[in-house]
Amino acid sequence: MRLLIMGAPGAGKGTQAKLIANHYRIPAISTGAIFRANIAAKTPLGQRVHQLISAGEFVPDVITTAVVAKRLLEDDAHNGWLLDGYPRTTDQVEALDIILEDAKRHLDCVLCLETDPETLIDRLVKRAEIEGRADDNETTIRRRMEVYTEETAPLLATYEERGLLVRVNGEGTVDEVAGRIFAALDKYSA
Ligand code: ADP
């Protein structure tokens, strides 16, 4: 199974991505997590993207696409994957189309976690207290929301037109949301 998980910052993508990955035995590949690991390890990539991420801005498409293309070639991604945080721009959608075409693969579905904007801010503020992510401060959260609305939310229409979009209610407990996701995804996992 090859799928994307989309939704606003704080919608619970990372949490649900891990549960989906365990359930279907596919790797959950998060561009944000890859960037954060590189920042923590002070790699050249980490140093290049650190400031942009702290400001809530996107990393340039060429960099992000190169990271994803390389990751999808690793052995564990051979039989399927879940992408969390990519694509986030129209150019990234096109880049992913090309990656898939080259590999003679296709997307099974695009999962969208839908949440109330108030829930999002609450969750991000709580996460800031627990995890201390550098981009979970109020100014950056607002910027990430803006960028999501401008650049990423419109991509949902693209995937909807392709008949790939599956909307899931992201409100409630982690288990409630996971239950809805598994119910919606089971038909793709055969
Ligand atoms: P969130 O929880 O806000 O959705 P992520 O962990 O997915 O955040 O990503 C954190 C940050 O990493 C983003 O705000 C952005 O700066 C950068 N990033 C992650 N994925 C992409 C992408 N596909 N394109 C550009 N920048 C990205």
Automatic annotation (TrEMBL):
Amino-acid positions noted as binding AMP in the UniProt annotation, renumbered to this chain: 31, 36, 57-59, 85-88, 92, 133, 144
Catalytic function, reaction form: AMP + ATP = 2 ADP
Pathway noted in the entry: Purine metabolism; AMP biosynthesis via salvage pathway; AMP from ADP: step 1/1
GO BP: AMP salvage
GO cellular component, one term: cytoplasm
MF term (GO), any: ATP binding
CDD domains per UniProt: ADK
Annotated EC: 2.7.4.3
Region (NMP): 30-59
Location(s), subcellular: Cytoplasm
Matches recorded under PROSITE patterns: ADENYLATE_KINASE (PS00113)
Record keywords: ATP-binding, Cytoplasm, Kinase, Nucleotide biosynthesis, Nucleotide-binding, Transferase
Enzyme class (EC, first level): transferase
Residues that coordinate or bind ATP: 10-15, 127, 172
Main location: cytoplasm
InterPro entries: Adenylat/UMP-CMP_kin (IPR000850), Adenylat_kinase_CS (IPR033690), P-loop_NTPase (IPR027417)
Assembly, per entry: Monomer.
Protein purpose: Catalyzes the reversible transfer of the terminal phosphate group between ATP and AMP. Plays an important role in cellular energy homeostasis and in adenine nucleotide metabolism.
NCBIfam families noted in UniProt: PRK00279.1-3, PRK14527.1, PRK14531.1, PRK14532.1
Domain notes: Consists of three domains, a large central CORE domain and two small peripheral domains, NMPbind and LID, which undergo movements during catalysis. The LID domain closes over the site of phosphoryl transfer upon ATP binding. Assembling and dissambling the active center during each catalytic cycle provides an effective means to prevent ATP hydrolysis.
Assigned protein family: Belongs to the adenylate kinase family.
Protein's name according to its UniProt entry: Adenylate kinase
Native organism taxonomy: Bacteria, Bacillati, Actinomycetota, Actinomycetes, Propionibacteriales
